[in-house]
Each structure stands twice: as C-alpha cells, then as structure tokens.
Amino acid sequence: MLGPVILAASRSDRMRRLVSAAPVTKPVVDRFIPGETVDQIVPIIRELTDQGLELTMDVVGEDITTPAQAEAARDAYLELIDRLKPLELGTRAEMSVKLSMFGQALEGGHELALANVRPLVEAAAEIGTTVTLDAEDHTTLDSMFAIHEELRKDFPQTGCVIQAYLFRTEADARRLADSGSRVRLVKGAYKEPAEVAYQQRHEIDKAYVRILRTLMEGEGYPMIGSHDPRLISIGQELARTAGRKLDEYEFQMLYGIRSDEHLRLAAEGHRMRVYTAYGTDWYGYFMRRLAEKPANLRFFARSMVSKG
C-alpha cells in the first residue's frame, strides 16, 4: 500500500526539500491549495459561495515547536475572521483547526491549545459562524474531545471530527450524537497501528456506514466528509430513512477533488461544504491528500512526467 509510504514521506525533511524544489510542484499544489495568503483566498471564498457552495477554511501548518508559533497560528485565523466579517456569510464560511497548530503537542499543550483556540471560537461566533476541531492521530483525541466539550459549554455550535478507521469511534459517535454535536465523519488519513485502527478498506467502509447511521439517527448535525460516490449515496439514503431534511446534515469535500460533484449536490439542494486550505506551510497537507487517494498520486505523477 502506497498510503503509509507517502505518510512517512510527509514527515521527512529531505522529501520536503525535494518535493518543494520540483518545478512541477506548485501548479499541482495549486489544485488543492488555492492560495498562500488571506488576500489570495478571499476571491476564492467569493467565487465558491457565489456558486451556492459553503466552505470550511483551514490555515495549513502543523510543525509547531514553540508557544510563539502557536500564537502566530491563532493570529492567522483571527486575521481570516476579520476578513470574513464584511462578507457577511455567516455559517456559509466556517473554520477548521488542528489543535497541534495551537500548541497541543508542547509542554502543557492541552491548556495552551485551549487558551489559543478559545479566542478564535469567540471571534467566529461574533460574526455568526463557528469552528470545527479536526481530528489528528489517535494519541491526541482525548485532549481534542475534552477541549471540544469545554468550548461547547459557551459555544454549543463548535464542531469536531471523528475518523471511521479507529476502533474507538463508534463509541465516540454514540456519545456525540446524543449530545447534539456537529460532527464531521471522515475515513481517516493518519498512519495508525493495527491495535487501534482497521487496516483494510472494506472494514473502514463498513465502519463508516455504521457510524454514519448512528449520527443520522441521533440528535446532532452530521457532516459527511467523503468523496466516495457509494458512501455519498448511502448517506443520502440514511438521511431519508432518519427523516432528516436537507438542511439537517451536509456533505463536505476537499477543494480540488470532484468539483463537479460539489456543484451537483448543491444544485440538488444539499448543503455542500468545501474544505479549503491555504497558507505557505502546505507540504504536510499536500502529502496527506496524495496518501488518501491513489488518483491524487497518479495526478501528481502524470504532472511530473508531462512537465519534466
């Protein structure tokens, strides 16, 4: 399987230098990451929302080694919120954050991440939108869920992400569904050991369906994070069976992947949210996109051959 190899490469400084220096890299990266600055991303936000799409914005960057870097990440999101305010999009443009960017892995990281993310959640609420806490590797999840629970005391609209390939997720889904949370369900994109996660695609897909059924039958707001046509169809059927209206759940897909499907779902009346990343520290995000789906890797390889 190429996925684990690519994920290992995402942590290699040597591979980072090689990929970043390749002439073909930038035009390929632009497919997934449409800008490096907030000035570049605002026109993208306008373009997508004018097409009837919604967004969740991610300022990329994961190698946080100092509290000052964590504060800089917080400030980058606050700048984004400041630029979103005059657009008056409300929840049509929310934010996704990785707590590792806010210092979660540093000494005293749980408290530091909570202290850094709270101002962001407060500022988002002031302009009528919200924040979703992304899931990272399994060792970080207890901290993420605790921060999610703490934030929801004052900001119940705060969302979180769960990953179908982890054994623990079915129990997490039942708890979150009962609490009325906003929950994005994804398959999972980190290399996890067999002791904690399903390793085979068919096992992950079956778990995804079981978990999605729990979310649809619960009291929360399910967010279906998948590009898989079969899972999208199953999600629609589970929503109908659960008696959910079109505004009581949503689909989420990555910017640059199956863009025609984004527009098709929106045209059918579904809430369709595009996960849109921007920033200069794009390498880790880009490599995970390649690892998640062989078609993405083939796209990159073809581009290298045609441009080389």
Mean pLDDT: 89
Which regions contain 5 or more consecutive residues with pLDDT less than 50?
303-308
Largest sheet: 8 strands, parallel, barrel
Helix content: 40-55%
Structural class call reads alpha/beta
- Rounded to the nearest angstrom, the radius of gyration is 18 Å
| Shape call | globular
**Main β-sheet, spatial strand arrangement:** 1-2-3-4-5-6-7-8
* Proportion of residues in extended strands: 5-15%
Order of helices and strands: HHHHEHEHEHEHEHEHEHEHH
First-last Cα distance: 26 Å
Number of helices: 13
Number-wise, the strands total: 8
Descriptive report:
The chain has 308 residues and is an alpha/beta fold. It is built from 13 helices and 8 strands. It has an 8-stranded parallel beta barrel, surrounded by 7 helices. Helix 5 (67-84) runs parallel beside helix 6 and helix 6 (109-126) crosses helix 7. It is globular, with a radius of gyration of 18 Å. The two termini are 26 Å apart.
